[in-house]
Amino acid sequence: MAKVKVLSQYCKCCQLCIEVCPQGGLKVGDKTNARGYNTVVPVNEEKCTGCTLCAIMCPDVAIEVYK
Amino acid sequence: MEKVFGRSKGLSGTPFSFCPGCTHGIIMRLIAEVLEELDIIEETIGVSPVGCSGFCQDFFTCDFVSGAHGRAQAIGNGIKRALPDKIVFTYQGDGDIAGIGTQHAIHTAARGEKITSIMVNNALYGMTGGQMAPTTLKGMKTTTTPYGREVEVYGYPIDLPKIIAALDGAVYVASVSVDTPKNVLQTKKAIKKAFRVQQAGLGFALVSVLSTCPTNWGLSPQESLKWLRENMMPFYAMGELKATEEVKNL
Ligand SMILES: Cc1ncc(C[n+]2csc(CCOP(=O)(O)OP(=O)(O)O)c2C)c(N)n1
Ligand code: SF4
Ligand code: SF4
Ligand code: SF4
Questions:
Q1: Does B14 touch chain A (CB under 8 A)?
Q2: Between β-strands A63-66 and A3-6, what pairing exists: parallel, antiparallel or unpaired?
């Protein structure tokens, strides 16, 4: 069991996390944050392995990983 | 469930001011994590440059001083000499440290000043709109070299870490990249070592990190990582360019 949490106030929709996730675990959501970015949300949550690759590549430190 | 990845105590909580996908942010996160892991947040003084990272004092929880363009090392050296028990680091773009501040880079290394410098190389002047820097690659298009950098007119790119490694006062010099998760982890190791060199008082340490500028390169964040890998990494000498015996034994 693993889980990612996106701290949407930091997300800038650069999508580097989406590109690096081997499980297709993130996608662009339909909500916009206060700074006008469409923020990323977890998807296929049961597939997340907690590998932290998304968080390692996130330039805005917007991802927390729980395992 | 336990948190296995989150924001470090070295970060203030203020969102970074960088463009989406700009890897300045990855490098700042790594520094913050290293400060926390070495338990030196309280005793560290950073010196910020002029450039896109000129606001970095806002992002960290350690103390900071702001420098004029290219002068971060001169300021850092003064702080370290006056307060030798503090940990002092500079964070500088390539235009800052390898352009307008080159003389400080050379003499900081030659004198073996006991500070740590992090150079962030995106091969152009980011903040001012993407002009050619001394680090701009041969043939690379920038706003001031719209047909690509012609070496007959503009000369050749500078690989600063190689020059610094040749100076005796520099004891640790590494050139790393943040284009893949593996390389990000490698970069963190190099940054940690550069701070440990200072804790041990061994001499000057420089870590140069190849970084993207999606905005001025005119590429998406993901394409920028690829461009860096295919164009910058083959040109710049990569890896641990210098580690004295004492550094290796740390
Ligand atoms: C003395 C001085 N000269 C020029 C400038 C204009 N200036 C501001 S930022 C910058 C370039 C910064 O580029 P770099 O160090 O590569 O950092 P980046 O923004 O790419 O991260 C320049 C030339 C200035 N602020 N002060
Ligand atoms: S932790 Fe790994 S599997 Fe889970 S979302 Fe991030 S990259 Fe994907
Ligand atoms: S990498 Fe970070 S900032 Fe970029 S889209 Fe993912 S969560 Fe948002
Ligand atoms: S201009 Fe370039 S270096 Fe500056 S914040 Fe934007 S992407 Fe990063």
A1: no
A2: antiparallel
